[in-house]
Amino acid sequence: MNSSTQPVSPFSCAPFIKEIGRGKEGARGLDRAQARELMAAILAGLVSPLELGAVLIALRVKGETIDELLGFLDALADQSVQTDGTAASVFQQLNDWSVQSGKPVVVIPSYNGARRKPNLTAMIAGLLAEKGFPVLVHGHADNAVGRVSTRSVMDQIQWPMANAPVYLELAHWQPMLAELLNKRAVLGVRNVAHTLVKLLVPSQLKQTLAVCSYTHPEFWNLQRAVFCSLGQTALVLRGHEGEPVAAPYRVPRMDGVKAGQSWCLAEPESLMSEQPDPHPPIDATSTARQIEAWLTKSQVIPHGFVAQLQAIETLIASETAAQS
């Protein structure tokens, strides 16, 4: 084929790939403005499939920097106009609940799903709702193929409280980011979108507290640093099954972020407490029934959940502490 007949990308990623694609040792991170420009082009559909794959793999090999994540989040905030009617209605409802209760909307990103143990994200969402917090759980069901998703569990729960937690699919307010998550099926590995969704707080919500989890230790500092830079209030914890919920019978490390500062709210327990059932069923129906039982019998709620709820309440009520 003659080169003159080959399709030309409306946006060239070459300058960016030259920075981030030089290999693990030679690659350099983008600054915040560059990252914003790159992600804006991706979200606008201006990047060719070949270049998009190169960008995603280069970032995967190099690892994302704080400035890159901040720039990417800036671009996502600019794209919030894509919010559809379903999302707009949910955000208005949550803002109204927040005003009525005097409490922030607790935003819980849930994108991992469970493989070996029950997915208990809905449990902390339910406990917060019982305390009067408006709760938004957002996720992408297609991302949890082969796993038990939070949506599948929440769909089967009969909530005992008046204002139940709300689940919202990512595609209703960030459709292009949802498409980026789908690239995992093409590339075979996770990409920067999987990092971004855990940090994502809808700009349409007026007062928020984010609950963010990590599995790999390097993300502990990265997530706290991003929330500090954004001035976002957040609880950062080592998640159970990769989800933003404490293990039921063991308290994980939990850190608070508020007004640009971060400090430890709970030290991790070294041992798992004895469990009534060490090998519980993990299907959505069984998990939903267990969560309903815990929510209606407060005296038997596992202490890991209680500790996470207390950490969130302490964070909201606290003055900021010294950066740890």
TrEMBL record:
A GO molecular function held by the record: DNA binding
One protein family per Pfam: Glycos_trans_3N
Keyword Transferase: yes
Residues of the Glycosyl transferase family 3 N-terminal domain: 16-79
Keywords: DNA-binding, Glycosyltransferase, Transferase
Gene name as annotated: ybiB
Highest taxon listed in the record's lineage: Bacteria
Protein known as: DNA-binding protein YbiB
